[in-house]
Amino acid sequence: MLFLLLQGTPITVCLLYLVVLIFSATVHEISHAYVAYKLGDPTAKLMGRMTLNPRVHLTRAGTFAMLLLPIGWANPVIINPRNFKHPSRDTVIVSLAGPISNLLMAFIGAFILVLFYRFPISNGALGNAVDEICIIFTQLNILLFIFNLLPIPPLDGSKIITSWLPYRAREWLWRVEQYGIIILFLVIYLLSPVINWLENLILNGIVDIWAHLFL
User: Fold this and answer.
1) 171 catalytic residue (yes or no)
2) Which of 63, 100, 151, 157 has a CA 20 to 30 Å removed from the CA of 215?
3) Could you tell me where the beta strands, DSSP code E, fall in the chain?
4) How far apart are the C-alpha atoms of 106 and 206, rounded to whole Å?
5) pTM
């Protein structure tokens, strides 16, 4: 949020961004827990991670990142692959569940946005508010989708590739995890142009899909 404030973003928009970020991160973690449970692992469910209460999902490091950056993360859901029928495959599916939930939320946000343009309710303050909320909700969830697929511990991308790597490579990634926050800051700084390009590409693609159907 501080990053946005320093760029001149109004405090009300920053607070809205933070609320949307916390909600989206919460749904992200619930998706991991739910899919793991459906695939046979009740670990996250027994730990109370299938709840919309954000306090259950937030961590100090992830919340600190949310307050500083335009992105952040929640407490990763713990799974026990031994409960899966197909440990490697199901671990990948569970890891993908979070990013996919963000992509689906982006589709929902864009759908409401396009629908609102197609059938405007109000052109005044209400219209501006709905427009602002939908844009932030859609863009942020696309950003979370991209961000969480980065192959950096403890993000989902690292868990996806770890399932298919030889043991030595996995061991190296586990060692790197303790430096994950530092690496993430560097990656966000160095790859921000690429991440922004991907975000705009996905956003335009989603909006085009809905616009083609409704406009």
Assistant:
1) no
2) 100
3) none
4) 8
5) 0.89
Q: Which of 29, 171, 177, 199 is catalytic?
A: 29
Instruction: Give me the torsion for CA of 136, 30, 64, 16, rounded to 10°.
Output: 30
Is 140:17 a contact under the CB 8 Å cutoff? yes
**Cα–Cα dist 182/166, whole Å:** 25
| Contact call for residues 201 and 143 (beta carbons, < 8 A) | no
Q: What is the pLDDT along the chain (215 residues), one digit of tens a residue?
A: 666 777 787 888 888 989 999 999 999 999 999 999 999 999 999 999 999 998 899 888 778 777 877 777 788 899 999 999 999 899 999 999 999 999 999 999 999 988 887 776 656 666 777 888 999 999 999 999 998 998 887 789 888 887 777 767 667 666 776 666 777 778 777 888 898 999 999 999 999 999 888 76
How many angstroms from the chain centroid is the CA of residue 6?
23
Distance CA 14, CA 31 (A): 26
Residue carrying structure tokens 């609102």? 116
